[in-house]
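TA notes, week 10

Several of you asked for a full example with nothing omitted. So below is the full record: structure tokens for the whole chain, then the designed sequence directly under it. When grading your own attempts, check the secondary structure regions first.
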């Protein structure tokens, strides 16, 4: 009986040696398959509360000297930096004509800060600094949504860069900060785009951003670049969700910019000014050695080099785009493409 039971437990034509040989060959086949399909790159970990706390504390500490000055709305400035300076009441900021020409949210913040029982200069600077910290934090969220490994380092450089000091300190430039926050928030929800709620937030933030700052009109283009970054071989349907965003930006752009005084300027003058601004801020970004709070324009240099500067930015960027073209499949090359463009 024991022999019969033992014979029943062994299948005919098979032995333990054959089973072990079969399992060994199967494991080799699995290893071969693993080698043929290399493991994907590990996803960067999202920044925790300590990273955001570090970002906030370092930014507040570095910009704290602005509270030593109570200067706002200098009477010696020969140019009106904001329509707020010629308005009497908050209602003036929300007329249809004013909304087409100016940023109603920033104008409202100026009127509201007037009513706070606090020192006006320090309050003005504190609000600007808080807006800048909020922009840096949302910028970090955007970079994390793009799954970039150096997201925190890039956000920290943006938060602490000395060139930002001018926008935070001088009165009349708060719309730059408010507009940037809305643009970055729209980018974040557009990149994530997990639900109908995300898409609704994208449309609302796009509309508000376009009313605040004209740079928001390129939001559909920026989101298209993000789609290219996220997909090696993007297809046309990957851009379908950007069509309503494009239509919304075009509608608000036509409605607001038709009342803009810049619409009637000479196109050549605008191109020359944009080119000179490009070179100035590129130099300030890479070599922030000139730490003045105000940089007066060099009129003579503008006339001498204005025509030459017009096409130089294009020539500077061409070699980078050529290198990106040959390495387009790599995520790093696509990241550089998005950043440069």
């Amino acid at each position: 009986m024991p022999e019969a039971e033992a014979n029943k437990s062994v299948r005919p034509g098979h032995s333990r040696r054959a089973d072990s040989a079969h399992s060994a060959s199967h494991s080799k086949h699995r290893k071969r398959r693993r080698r043929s399909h290399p493991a994907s790159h590990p996803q960067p970990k999202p920044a925790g509360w300590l990273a955001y706390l570090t970002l906030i504390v370092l930014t507040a500490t570095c910009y704290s000297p602005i509270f030593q000055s109570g200067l706002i709305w200098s009477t010696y400035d020969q140019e009106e930096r904001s329509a707020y300076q010629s308005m009497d009441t908050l209602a003036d900021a929300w007329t249809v004509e004013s909304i087409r020409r100016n940023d109603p949210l920033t104008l409202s913040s100026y009127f509201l800060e007037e009513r706070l029982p606090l020192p006006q200069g320090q309050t003005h600077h504190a609000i600007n600094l808080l807006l800048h910290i909020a922009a840096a934090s949302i910028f970090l969220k955007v970079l994390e949504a793009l799954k970039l490994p150096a997201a925190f380092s890039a956000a920290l450089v943006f938060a602490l860069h000395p060139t930002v000091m001018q926008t935070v300190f001088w009165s009349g430039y708060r719309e730059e900060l408010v507009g940037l926050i809305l643009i970055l928030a729209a980018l974040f929800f557009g990149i994530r785009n997990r639900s109908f709620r995300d898409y609704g937030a994208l449309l609302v933030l796009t509309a508000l951003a376009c009313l605040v700052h004209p740079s928001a009109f390129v939001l559909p283009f920026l989101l298209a670049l993000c789609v290219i970054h996220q997909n090696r071989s993007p297809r046309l349907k990957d851009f379908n969700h950007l069509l309503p965003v494009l239509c919304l930006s075009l509608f608000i752009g036509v409605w607001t910019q038709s009342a803009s005084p810049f619409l009637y300027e000479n196109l050549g003058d605008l191109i020359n000014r944009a080119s000179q601004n490009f070179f100035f801020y590129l130099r300030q970004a890479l070599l922030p050695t000139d730490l003045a709070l105000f940089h007066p324009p060099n009129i003579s240099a503008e006339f001498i080099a204005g025509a030459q500067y017009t096409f130089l930015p294009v020539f500077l960027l061409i070699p980078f785009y050529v290198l990106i073209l040959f390495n387009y499949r790599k995520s790093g090359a696509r990241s550089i493409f998005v950043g440069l463009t």
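The first helix runs from residue 2 to 9. Use that as a sanity check on your answer.
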